[in-house]
Design goal:
By secondary structure, this protein is mostly beta strands. It has two helices and 19 strands. Strands 2-3-4-6-7-8-9-13-14-15-16-17-18-19 form a 14-stranded antiparallel beta barrel. The chain is elongated.
Protein backbone atom coordinates (compact mmCIF):
# COMPACT_ATOMS: atom_id res chain seq x y z
CA UNK A 1 0.00 0.00 0.00
CA UNK A 2 2.99 2.32 0.23
CA UNK A 3 2.58 3.33 -3.39
CA UNK A 4 -0.50 5.27 -2.25
CA UNK A 5 1.58 7.78 -0.30
CA UNK A 6 2.51 10.06 -3.25
CA UNK A 7 -1.12 9.96 -4.39
CA UNK A 8 -2.37 10.96 -0.93
CA UNK A 9 0.04 13.91 -0.70
CA UNK A 10 -0.88 15.08 -4.21
CA UNK A 11 -4.60 14.81 -3.43
CA UNK A 12 -4.23 16.72 -0.16
CA UNK A 13 -2.22 19.45 -1.87
CA UNK A 14 -4.91 19.81 -4.56
CA UNK A 15 -7.70 19.91 -1.98
CA UNK A 16 -5.85 22.61 -0.05
CA UNK A 17 -6.41 25.10 -2.86
CA UNK A 18 -10.10 24.30 -3.29
CA UNK A 19 -11.59 23.43 0.10
CA UNK A 20 -10.43 26.41 2.16
CA UNK A 21 -13.21 28.95 2.58
CA UNK A 22 -13.62 32.23 4.37
CA UNK A 23 -15.30 32.43 7.74
CA UNK A 24 -17.74 35.34 7.56
CA UNK A 25 -17.81 36.30 11.22
CA UNK A 26 -17.79 40.08 11.49
CA UNK A 27 -14.81 41.40 13.48
CA UNK A 28 -13.63 45.02 13.10
CA UNK A 29 -10.27 43.86 14.49
CA UNK A 30 -9.80 42.04 11.18
CA UNK A 31 -9.12 45.46 9.59
CA UNK A 32 -5.52 45.33 10.76
CA UNK A 33 -2.40 43.34 9.89
CA UNK A 34 -3.31 39.91 8.46
CA UNK A 35 -6.74 39.83 10.12
CA UNK A 36 -7.99 37.88 13.11
CA UNK A 37 -5.79 34.89 13.88
CA UNK A 38 -7.49 31.49 13.84
CA UNK A 39 -6.80 28.98 16.65
CA UNK A 40 -4.31 26.31 15.54
CA UNK A 41 -4.77 22.63 16.27
CA UNK A 42 -6.93 19.56 15.81
CA UNK A 43 -10.05 19.52 17.98
CA UNK A 44 -8.53 17.28 20.65
CA UNK A 45 -5.98 20.05 21.25
CA UNK A 46 -8.53 22.87 21.08
CA UNK A 47 -10.74 21.12 23.65
CA UNK A 48 -7.72 21.24 25.96
CA UNK A 49 -7.15 24.97 25.45
CA UNK A 50 -4.84 24.42 22.48
CA UNK A 51 -1.98 22.49 24.12
CA UNK A 52 0.03 20.45 21.60
CA UNK A 53 3.80 21.07 21.80
CA UNK A 54 4.55 18.15 24.15
CA UNK A 55 1.59 16.01 23.10
CA UNK A 56 2.17 12.76 21.18
CA UNK A 57 0.26 9.54 20.63
CA UNK A 58 -0.55 7.07 17.88
CA UNK A 59 -4.06 8.31 17.00
CA UNK A 60 -3.76 12.14 16.77
CA UNK A 61 -1.86 14.62 14.62
CA UNK A 62 -0.18 17.41 16.62
CA UNK A 63 1.20 19.47 13.74
CA UNK A 64 2.57 22.35 15.84
CA UNK A 65 5.44 19.99 16.74
CA UNK A 66 6.40 17.67 13.83
CA UNK A 67 8.51 15.54 16.19
CA UNK A 68 5.20 14.02 17.34
CA UNK A 69 4.79 12.22 13.99
CA UNK A 70 7.34 9.63 15.15
CA UNK A 71 4.64 8.21 17.49
CA UNK A 72 2.47 6.87 14.62
CA UNK A 73 1.99 3.08 14.58
CA UNK A 74 3.82 1.18 11.85
CA UNK A 75 0.54 -0.13 10.37
CA UNK A 76 -1.73 2.88 10.82
CA UNK A 77 -3.22 5.63 8.72
CA UNK A 78 -4.78 8.74 10.31
CA UNK A 79 -7.34 11.06 8.77
CA UNK A 80 -8.86 14.07 10.56
CA UNK A 81 -11.46 16.41 9.06
CA UNK A 82 -13.23 19.18 11.00
CA UNK A 83 -15.86 21.90 10.64
CA UNK A 84 -16.59 24.67 13.12
CA UNK A 85 -19.28 27.21 13.93
CA UNK A 86 -18.50 30.63 15.42
CA UNK A 87 -20.73 33.25 17.00
CA UNK A 88 -19.28 36.69 17.72
CA UNK A 89 -20.91 39.40 19.80
CA UNK A 90 -19.41 42.90 19.56
CA UNK A 91 -20.05 45.32 22.38
CA UNK A 92 -19.16 49.03 22.52
CA UNK A 93 -20.76 50.85 25.40
CA UNK A 94 -24.51 50.21 25.12
CA UNK A 95 -24.29 49.03 21.51
CA UNK A 96 -23.89 45.42 20.42
CA UNK A 97 -23.89 43.39 17.21
CA UNK A 98 -23.95 39.65 16.50
CA UNK A 99 -22.69 37.60 13.56
CA UNK A 100 -22.12 33.89 13.00
CA UNK A 101 -20.93 31.42 10.38
CA UNK A 102 -20.03 27.77 9.84
CA UNK A 103 -16.97 26.79 7.84
CA UNK A 104 -14.21 24.30 7.10
CA UNK A 105 -11.52 24.18 9.78
CA UNK A 106 -8.90 21.56 8.94
CA UNK A 107 -7.98 18.49 6.95
CA UNK A 108 -5.10 16.36 8.30
CA UNK A 109 -3.47 13.04 7.45
CA UNK A 110 -0.70 11.03 9.09
CA UNK A 111 0.98 7.71 8.35
CA UNK A 112 4.22 5.84 9.14
CA UNK A 113 7.11 5.18 6.81
CA UNK A 114 8.98 2.92 9.23
CA UNK A 115 9.06 2.28 12.96
CA UNK A 116 9.74 5.62 14.65
CA UNK A 117 9.43 7.54 11.37
CA UNK A 118 6.12 9.22 10.50
CA UNK A 119 4.71 11.68 7.98
CA UNK A 120 2.08 14.36 8.61
CA UNK A 121 0.35 16.72 6.20
CA UNK A 122 -2.66 19.01 6.21
CA UNK A 123 -4.43 22.24 5.41
CA UNK A 124 -5.37 24.72 8.17
CA UNK A 125 -6.61 28.35 8.27
CA UNK A 126 -4.22 30.99 9.62
CA UNK A 127 -6.24 34.22 9.64
CA UNK A 128 -9.58 35.71 8.66
CA UNK A 129 -9.95 39.22 7.18
CA UNK A 130 -13.75 39.48 7.04
CA UNK A 131 -15.56 42.52 8.47
CA UNK A 132 -18.34 44.95 7.59
CA UNK A 133 -18.80 48.36 9.26
CA UNK A 134 -21.44 50.92 8.30
CA UNK A 135 -22.05 54.34 9.84
CA UNK A 136 -24.51 57.09 8.94
CA UNK A 137 -23.99 60.64 10.26
CA UNK A 138 -26.95 63.03 10.05
CA UNK A 139 -27.67 66.47 11.51
CA UNK A 140 -29.06 64.76 14.60
CA UNK A 141 -25.80 62.91 15.26
CA UNK A 142 -23.33 64.28 17.86
CA UNK A 143 -20.51 63.82 15.32
CA UNK A 144 -22.27 66.00 12.73
CA UNK A 145 -20.16 68.85 11.28
CA UNK A 146 -22.16 71.47 9.31
CA UNK A 147 -19.14 72.21 7.14
CA UNK A 148 -18.87 68.57 6.03
CA UNK A 149 -22.59 67.86 6.10
CA UNK A 150 -24.31 64.51 6.38
CA UNK A 151 -22.48 61.43 5.09
CA UNK A 152 -22.31 57.67 5.25
CA UNK A 153 -19.18 55.58 5.64
CA UNK A 154 -18.77 51.89 4.88
CA UNK A 155 -15.77 49.69 5.54
CA UNK A 156 -15.47 46.06 4.49
CA UNK A 157 -12.87 43.35 4.19
CA UNK A 158 -12.73 39.80 2.92
CA UNK A 159 -10.27 36.98 2.43
CA UNK A 160 -7.67 35.47 4.69
CA UNK A 161 -4.56 33.31 4.79
CA UNK A 162 -4.29 29.53 4.75
CA UNK A 163 -1.40 27.15 5.33
CA UNK A 164 -0.58 23.81 3.77
CA UNK A 165 2.05 21.75 5.59
CA UNK A 166 3.86 18.47 5.07
CA UNK A 167 6.52 17.14 7.39
CA UNK A 168 8.28 14.21 8.99
CA UNK A 169 9.13 13.12 12.52
CA UNK A 170 11.93 10.72 13.39
CA UNK A 171 12.79 8.97 16.65
CA UNK A 172 16.52 9.66 17.15
CA UNK A 173 16.80 7.78 20.42
CA UNK A 174 14.55 5.76 22.69
CA UNK A 175 13.50 8.97 24.42
CA UNK A 176 14.22 11.69 21.83
CA UNK A 177 12.38 12.59 18.60
CA UNK A 178 12.90 15.41 16.10
CA UNK A 179 10.87 16.65 13.15
CA UNK A 180 10.44 19.33 10.51
CA UNK A 181 7.44 20.73 8.61
CA UNK A 182 7.55 22.48 5.27
CA UNK A 183 4.75 25.06 5.26
CA UNK A 184 3.23 26.92 2.32
CA UNK A 185 1.40 30.12 3.23
CA UNK A 186 -1.00 31.54 0.66
CA UNK A 187 -4.06 33.78 0.36
CA UNK A 188 -5.13 37.38 0.01
CA UNK A 189 -7.02 40.05 1.92
CA UNK A 190 -8.99 42.86 0.27
CA UNK A 191 -10.23 45.96 2.11
CA UNK A 192 -12.46 48.80 0.94
CA UNK A 193 -13.35 52.14 2.57
CA UNK A 194 -15.98 54.47 1.13
CA UNK A 195 -17.26 57.90 2.23
CA UNK A 196 -20.39 59.16 0.51
CA UNK A 197 -21.57 62.73 1.22
CA UNK A 198 -25.08 64.16 1.09
CA UNK A 199 -23.81 67.31 -0.63
CA UNK A 200 -23.41 66.02 -4.19
CA UNK A 201 -22.76 69.46 -5.70
CA UNK A 202 -19.70 70.71 -3.83
CA UNK A 203 -18.11 67.64 -2.25
CA UNK A 204 -16.27 64.67 -3.74
CA UNK A 205 -17.02 61.21 -2.43
CA UNK A 206 -13.94 59.26 -1.34
CA UNK A 207 -13.06 55.62 -1.91
CA UNK A 208 -9.98 53.58 -1.11
CA UNK A 209 -9.23 49.95 -1.83
CA UNK A 210 -6.38 47.79 -0.62
CA UNK A 211 -5.35 44.31 -1.71
CA UNK A 212 -2.65 42.15 -0.12
CA UNK A 213 -1.72 38.86 -1.76
CA UNK A 214 0.95 36.63 -0.23
CA UNK A 215 2.63 33.30 -0.90
CA UNK A 216 5.78 31.54 0.25
CA UNK A 217 7.48 28.59 1.92
CA UNK A 218 8.82 28.32 5.46
CA UNK A 219 9.98 25.61 7.87
CA UNK A 220 8.89 24.50 11.37
CA UNK A 221 11.35 22.58 13.57
CA UNK A 222 10.39 20.37 16.50
CA UNK A 223 11.96 18.35 19.30
CA UNK A 224 10.38 16.10 21.93
CA UNK A 225 11.74 14.30 24.98
CA UNK A 226 9.70 11.39 26.36
CA UNK A 227 10.47 9.91 29.78
CA UNK A 228 8.55 6.94 31.24
CA UNK A 229 8.05 7.88 34.88
CA UNK A 230 6.72 4.41 35.66
CA UNK A 231 5.11 1.52 33.82
CA UNK A 232 1.89 3.47 33.24
CA UNK A 233 2.92 7.09 33.67
CA UNK A 234 4.78 9.39 31.28
CA UNK A 235 6.37 12.82 31.11
CA UNK A 236 6.91 14.68 27.82
CA UNK A 237 8.75 17.91 27.07
CA UNK A 238 8.49 19.61 23.69
CA UNK A 239 10.06 22.50 21.82
CA UNK A 240 9.19 23.82 18.38
CA UNK A 241 10.32 26.86 16.43
CA UNK A 242 9.25 28.72 13.30
CA UNK A 243 11.73 31.25 11.93
CA UNK A 244 10.83 34.74 10.71
CA UNK A 245 10.18 34.83 6.99
CA UNK A 246 9.77 37.31 4.11
CA UNK A 247 7.00 36.19 1.77
CA UNK A 248 6.37 36.91 -1.89
CA UNK A 249 3.99 39.85 -1.77
CA UNK A 250 1.74 41.66 -4.21
CA UNK A 251 0.34 44.81 -2.62
CA UNK A 252 -1.97 47.37 -4.21
CA UNK A 253 -3.41 50.54 -2.66
CA UNK A 254 -5.79 52.72 -4.69
CA UNK A 255 -7.38 55.94 -3.40
CA UNK A 256 -9.65 58.06 -5.57
CA UNK A 257 -12.46 60.61 -5.33
CA UNK A 258 -15.55 60.98 -7.47
CA UNK A 259 -18.75 63.00 -7.75
CA UNK A 260 -22.30 62.42 -8.85
CA UNK A 261 -21.54 63.67 -12.35
CA UNK A 262 -19.20 60.77 -13.07
CA UNK A 263 -15.97 62.74 -12.65
CA UNK A 264 -13.24 60.72 -10.92
CA UNK A 265 -9.78 61.72 -9.80
CA UNK A 266 -7.05 59.37 -8.59
CA UNK A 267 -5.48 60.67 -5.41
CA UNK A 268 -3.00 57.88 -4.72
CA UNK A 269 -2.08 54.66 -6.46
CA UNK A 270 0.71 52.29 -5.48
CA UNK A 271 1.46 48.71 -6.40
CA UNK A 272 4.26 46.19 -6.11
CA UNK A 273 5.69 44.19 -3.24
CA UNK A 274 5.72 47.16 -0.81
CA UNK A 275 9.06 45.82 0.52
CA UNK A 276 7.46 42.37 0.99
CA UNK A 277 5.55 41.08 3.97
CA UNK A 278 7.59 39.71 6.83
CA UNK A 279 6.10 37.51 9.54
CA UNK A 280 7.96 36.99 12.83
CA UNK A 281 9.40 33.82 14.31
CA UNK A 282 7.53 31.83 16.97
CA UNK A 283 8.93 29.79 19.86
CA UNK A 284 6.77 27.13 21.54
CA UNK A 285 7.60 25.23 24.73
CA UNK A 286 5.41 22.52 26.23
CA UNK A 287 5.17 19.97 29.06
CA UNK A 288 2.81 17.02 29.42
CA UNK A 289 2.34 14.54 32.26
CA UNK A 290 -0.12 11.71 32.53
CA UNK A 291 -1.19 8.12 32.88
CA UNK A 292 -1.45 6.07 29.69
CA UNK A 293 -5.06 5.61 28.49
CA UNK A 294 -6.32 7.50 31.54
CA UNK A 295 -5.26 11.10 32.09
CA UNK A 296 -3.11 13.89 30.60
CA UNK A 297 -2.23 17.33 31.95
CA UNK A 298 -0.33 19.68 29.61
CA UNK A 299 1.03 23.22 29.51
CA UNK A 300 2.26 25.34 26.57
CA UNK A 301 4.01 28.69 26.38
CA UNK A 302 4.09 30.46 23.01
CA UNK A 303 6.14 33.57 22.23
CA UNK A 304 5.97 35.59 18.99
CA UNK A 305 7.77 38.89 18.39
CA UNK A 306 5.15 40.55 16.21
CA UNK A 307 6.92 43.90 16.63
CA UNK A 308 9.49 42.54 14.15
CA UNK A 309 6.82 41.98 11.50
CA UNK A 310 6.34 44.10 8.41
CA UNK A 311 2.84 44.04 6.95
CA UNK A 312 2.02 46.43 4.09
CA UNK A 313 -0.71 48.89 5.05
CA UNK A 314 -0.55 48.02 8.77
CA UNK A 315 2.84 49.21 10.02
CA UNK A 316 2.86 49.84 13.77
CA UNK A 317 -0.31 47.85 14.53
CA UNK A 318 1.41 44.69 15.83
CA UNK A 319 2.92 43.96 19.25
CA UNK A 320 4.77 41.00 20.79
CA UNK A 321 2.62 38.21 22.26
CA UNK A 322 3.15 35.80 25.13
CA UNK A 323 0.46 33.13 25.45
CA UNK A 324 -0.06 30.60 28.26
CA UNK A 325 -2.16 27.49 27.67
CA UNK A 326 -3.23 24.83 30.17
CA UNK A 327 -5.30 21.75 29.39
CA UNK A 328 -6.27 18.32 30.67
CA UNK A 329 -7.98 15.15 29.44
CA UNK A 330 -9.54 12.37 31.50
CA UNK A 331 -10.87 8.98 30.36
CA UNK A 332 -12.66 7.05 33.12
CA UNK A 333 -12.15 3.58 31.57
CA UNK A 334 -10.99 3.51 27.95
CA UNK A 335 -11.69 -0.20 27.38
CA UNK A 336 -14.89 -0.50 29.42
CA UNK A 337 -17.34 -3.17 28.22
CA UNK A 338 -20.18 -1.91 30.38
CA UNK A 339 -20.42 1.88 29.89
CA UNK A 340 -20.11 3.88 26.68
CA UNK A 341 -19.71 7.12 28.65
CA UNK A 342 -16.76 5.70 30.60
CA UNK A 343 -14.95 5.14 27.29
CA UNK A 344 -15.34 8.80 26.32
CA UNK A 345 -12.58 11.41 26.71
CA UNK A 346 -13.43 14.53 28.76
CA UNK A 347 -11.36 17.68 28.22
CA UNK A 348 -10.94 21.12 29.81
CA UNK A 349 -8.55 23.97 29.13
CA UNK A 350 -7.82 27.66 29.04
CA UNK A 351 -5.58 30.19 27.31
CA UNK A 352 -4.65 33.75 28.16
CA UNK A 353 -2.28 36.43 26.94
CA UNK A 354 -2.18 39.48 24.71
CA UNK A 355 -3.50 39.56 21.17
CA UNK A 356 -1.03 40.70 18.52
CA UNK A 357 -3.11 43.78 17.63
CA UNK A 358 -1.84 47.15 18.87
CA UNK A 359 -4.45 49.86 18.18
CA UNK A 360 -4.74 53.45 19.43
CA UNK A 361 -1.77 52.92 21.74
CA UNK A 362 -3.21 49.81 23.41
CA UNK A 363 -2.61 46.09 22.95
CA UNK A 364 -5.77 43.98 22.78
CA UNK A 365 -6.09 41.42 25.60
CA UNK A 366 -7.35 37.91 24.91
CA UNK A 367 -8.50 35.15 27.27
CA UNK A 368 -10.49 31.97 26.74
CA UNK A 369 -11.80 28.76 28.32
CA UNK A 370 -12.47 25.49 26.50
CA UNK A 371 -14.09 22.09 26.89
CA UNK A 372 -14.27 19.03 24.68
CA UNK A 373 -15.20 15.38 24.24
CA UNK A 374 -13.70 12.44 22.42
CA UNK A 375 -16.51 10.10 21.41
CA UNK A 376 -15.64 6.52 20.37
CA UNK A 377 -17.20 5.71 17.02
CA UNK A 378 -17.08 1.92 17.22
CA UNK A 379 -16.29 -0.68 19.86
CA UNK A 380 -12.77 -1.99 19.37
CA UNK A 381 -11.84 0.89 17.03
CA UNK A 382 -9.56 3.84 17.81
CA UNK A 383 -11.57 6.16 15.53
CA UNK A 384 -13.32 9.03 17.33
CA UNK A 385 -15.52 12.04 16.85
CA UNK A 386 -14.00 15.04 18.61
CA UNK A 387 -16.11 17.98 19.79
CA UNK A 388 -14.82 21.19 21.33
CA UNK A 389 -16.31 24.42 22.68
CA UNK A 390 -14.28 27.61 23.10
CA UNK A 391 -15.30 30.93 24.64
CA UNK A 392 -12.76 33.68 23.93
CA UNK A 393 -12.91 37.36 24.84
CA UNK A 394 -10.93 40.07 23.04
CA UNK A 395 -10.92 43.25 25.09
CA UNK A 396 -9.95 46.85 24.37
CA UNK A 397 -10.70 50.03 26.33
CA UNK A 398 -13.74 52.05 25.29
CA UNK A 399 -11.84 55.20 26.31
CA UNK A 400 -9.37 54.41 23.50
CA UNK A 401 -12.13 53.93 20.97
CA UNK A 402 -11.88 50.13 21.15
CA UNK A 403 -14.54 47.50 21.70
CA UNK A 404 -14.99 44.03 23.20
CA UNK A 405 -15.60 40.83 21.24
CA UNK A 406 -17.09 37.64 22.69
CA UNK A 407 -16.38 34.57 20.54
CA UNK A 408 -18.21 31.30 21.08
CA UNK A 409 -16.83 28.60 18.79
CA UNK A 410 -17.79 24.96 18.60
CA UNK A 411 -16.48 22.34 16.23
CA UNK A 412 -16.84 18.68 15.37
CA UNK A 413 -14.30 16.49 13.62
CA UNK A 414 -13.98 12.89 12.50
CA UNK A 415 -10.66 11.35 13.50
CA UNK A 416 -10.27 8.05 11.63
CA UNK A 417 -7.65 5.43 12.46
CA UNK A 418 -7.21 2.57 10.01
CA UNK A 419 -4.76 -0.24 9.33
CA UNK A 420 -3.47 0.36 5.83
CA UNK A 421 -0.19 -1.43 5.69
CA UNK A 422 -1.09 -4.87 6.97
CA UNK A 423 -0.36 -7.67 4.51
CA UNK A 424 -3.21 -10.11 4.10
CA UNK A 425 -2.48 -13.70 5.06
CA UNK A 426 -5.37 -14.94 2.94
CA UNK A 427 -7.01 -13.62 -0.26
Amino acid sequence: MRNRIPLIISLLFTISFTISGQKQVNSPYSRFNIGSMEPAGAFKSLGMGGVSVAMRDNINIFFSNPASYSAFDTTSFLFDFGMDYSLNKLSFGNESHRSDDMNFDHLLIGFPVARGFGIGAGIVPISNGYYKIYNEVTSANPDYDPIIGAYTSSHSGEGGFTQFFAGAGLKLHKYVSAGVNMTILFGQISRTNNFSFEDTQNVYHNNSSENLQVGGINLDYGLQLTLPVSEKRFFNAGLSFTGGKKYNTDYENYIFRYNSFGTADTVTYSSGDANSMKLPGTMRVGLAYGQTNKMTIAFDFISTNWSNSRIPGSDGNAADTRTFILGMEYTPERFSNLSYFRRMDYRLGGHFGNNYLFINGEQIKETGITAGFGIPMKRGSLAKANIFIDYTRKKGSVSNGLHMEHYLTTGASINLYDFWFVKRKYD
